[in-house]
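Exam revision sheet. Question 4 asks you to relate a sequence to its structure. Input first:
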Amino acid sequence: MKQIKILLVDDEEEFVKTLSERMQIKNLDSDFVLSGEQALESLGNLTPDVMILDLKMPGINGMDVLRHVNKDYPQVQVIILTGHGSEQDKKNVLDLGAFDYFAKPVDLDELIQSISNAYELKIETHGKDSPAESAKFMTVSMKNSRSSAAETSVKANLDGETEAPVKETLGKLVVVGSESEFSEEIIDYGLEMARRMDFEIVALNTAPLICKNFKEFTPPWKKVCEEFQTESEENVRPFQQKADENRIGFTHAVEFVEVDDALEKLKTRLKNISLVVSRPEQLDGQTPEEPGTKSNRRKGFLVYALS
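Answer key, structure tokens:
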């Protein structure tokens, strides 16, 4: 059993928390900070074996953190994980001494393997820390890590059926449409967030109360619901096509309830729903601003985590 100390550095709080959770599923554990300043401060207290470092952060950016680490903590192996890098950035960080470079979205198994390789290099060149120091961070069974890397990730659809194996992602992002439609703005925003945070997309259409009301007027209600289902499936195709072009996992759900109730139903059907994107006016009942939830308004959209 090998003991590895991992520090995640990323200003995207939801992303870094989700990444940490996914590592725990792989029998890993880690500490994380949300800025370059916090990363440098933490190095004075506990020195990690491997640092997973974002490049684009406010204040002290990843490039400056890398320079500082290489100068004052050469035993720390740095792996860059960024959603805003370029080929020139990759060349620059590798020239500065980074062990590896990944663009978001990242294959988690590849990242774990790189962590293992970085740790092996650290042991070869600098040796191990004391057991007491290592225990302050995390304990990792590399045997379990390798067996986990060999496991196949299978995506379940809403009916419980399995599809072909897909690349494992860090979570699911629910994008709420305006009844049967999705605006170009929310499609582009959802795709951008999914790429950056390595999420699958769940596109959600809702028909609040329509079917419940029309059940009182047999036979029209069934036709109305079927038409809404068909219209939603047609309107979601451009969204799904863009997701396919970007190799982003995609699921479409249609629910004949209010948005809040639809999200609750999805939570029971799908695992690992991380965030929801919607227009503020689409919410009813309990809003994300109430206790137990967390939200941000970005570009006119409401982004929040389900409680």
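Marking note for examiners. Residues 108-126 form the longest helix (19 residues).
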